[in-house]
Amino acid sequence: MTIKTATKINVLISIQPAKAIFHRNEIIIRPTICDFDASLIKDTLPLRSNGGEVTTRAPTITITIPPLDFPLQIKGSPTPRPKNLSPFCNITPELFVEFCKYLHIDDLFALSQVCFRFQSLLCSKDSEATQDIWRRARSVWLPEITLGPPSDLCEKTYIELCLYERGCQLCKRRDVAVKIIWTFRVRTCQNCFLMNTMSGHDLTPLNWIPHHIYSYIPSTREDWTGEKLPEQEISPVLRNHPIFNNRLYWFPQFEQKVNEWKRIGTAGGRRQWEIRQRIKFIEIERDFILRERKSAEKAGLVQHPALTCYDQRDAQLRFCEEYFRQWSNTNSPSNAITSTISNNFCDKCELMKLHYQMMDEEIKEKNRFVYGFEEDGQPEEQKTSPKILLFGLETVTANIERIKYALNVQFGGEVESIKLSQNKKFCVVDFKEMRVYYEVLEVGSVRVLGGWLFVEKADGRTRHHKRI
To answer: Superkingdom, according to UniProt (predicted)?
Structure first.
């Protein structure tokens, strides 16, 4: 409270700690022992030049306090808020948004710390106007960032993550090299990365949780330098075990997810949590693949749009199909998932399948038959086999001319025959001097003639294909 007029406060002087009672505008202190000399107090307290005086009334002392020019804050009371704010703080939201269009990103961050109102206007994750302010600032002041934020990040957090000049987000050092680890949503230096990451082999003895929970927590196979961790030569079944999967987990994030899982007491609640975490992990993986492809294109490396990693794409589709079959029957007593979550998850699966089909259609329209691999100056080791879309069941007979044209351009030889294997997983193409085995990929109703697996030449030598 702020005292604007003279106020009398009755005070009892005590040699022991006293208990204060707050009543209206008076502070009453009740001690246990009251033993004092009023004359000593009167002599030791200086008189105020503007009328302050000390008088005695046994057993209390009444001190008259003149008007104060500063707010008097009592311990335990709320912090007083100033009433006379700057007129700029009362600006309308529409005018505030228009004003922020001309500010630099650093000015926006500084403005968000001025007062609570500006913070709510600039840090709201649900306001479209707030997101538009940061989106416009990113397009003007950070034109090199062409991709938008991931689905789990707002524009402000995304910009904070992309500001390399601010250094490491953990140790706050700006004189070290930093890198954005998109899987963990953190910008870190190499030292902090090593201190905060742990492998599944190291985490397993520390946390007693089922092994399948590890697959729902974001992880990476790359170290800070971008090198992929080597896979162990063991059975594919054991390779998915956290002890042998050779993946790195961000320990603070891992600990948070494990605590969330442990706080859920019911089996149905844990199953729903696993579904939500798995969906988030799939979206994180897709976003990571997209940004890696953009980085490779910016660096001048040739990467085909379809080569975003077919292995991960097929794994995601298999996951969706498997869980769709398990959750399609919502009347099953063993099914603890609600119909609402089931429908939402199935919608995400269908959207994912549609996304990949549209991606293949885009390949067809942009690259046509040879997909741009006839361009001059392209290194030989970066060439891959063309991706040919095969529609319908009669893949060979209906697309024979297109396949021949594309393969003739690639190998420079005449195609003699094309055969499809009985299991429809391989396509054998015979040239005059060699035989090429192609992989046939299926995405819904669309078939793709994938990368060639190996080539058998007339001299008996075999050349294996290396994807990029």
So the answer is: Eukaryota
